[in-house]
Amino acid sequence: MGSTFSKVDGQPDYTVELQFSSSIPIQSVVAAAEAAGQSILQIYKSEASKWEVQLKSDSSPLTRADFAANQIICDELTRLTPHIPIVSEENTVKPYDVRQNYQYHWLVDPLDGTKEFLKRNGEFTVNIALVTNGVPVLGVVHVPCQAKTYWAVKGKGAWLQTSQTQTQFQAAEFG
To answer: Where does the record place a coiled coil (predicted)?
Structure first.
């Protein structure tokens, strides 16, 4: 038998804010995006009849590649940062009144450009961002068909990474 706890009327509803220090190896996040991209490419190169295309409630397409990439990314982000929630198009989304209080969260679009994926034009990406109090502080965009990954850390710079090189470049400031 389980217990039921309820708030007593008139009692204050206090919360405790936790501040903690945690480091996130950026190359692990990049590797997750690239692994997701490889998974997407395997499906992309297969027969279209195996893509298992569905329509979301907003009539946008969803494929087996979306789910496979999402699983890879979420597994790795959970392993790296089990204390940071993941907001992804392919996961059940928590209500805004819960999400608005996230100090940190991952924002993931495992296959941005599913319509382009379906057209087989190669114009789709894997997107991962770490958001702190509503501000992105780390971003990774992997372009599977070009084998390029762009990543940036707020206040540190932006890079283009391929299998052979990693080049820092000047990004415009915003925000």
So the answer is: none
Q: How far is 118 from 53, CA to CA, in rounded Å? A: 9
Q: What are phi and psi of 145, to 5 degrees?
A: -70, -15
CA separation for the pair 131, 120 (Å, rounded): 31
- May I ask the CATH architecture of the domain 26-169? 2-Layer Sandwich (3.30)
pLDDT in tens, 123-155: 999 999 999 999 999 999 999 999 999 999 998
**What are the backbone dihedrals phi and psi of residue 105, each rounded to the nearest 5 degrees, phi first?**
-160, 155
Helices (H) and strands (E) in the chain, counts: 4, 9
Do 40 and 144 meet the contact criterion of CB atoms below 8 Å apart? yes
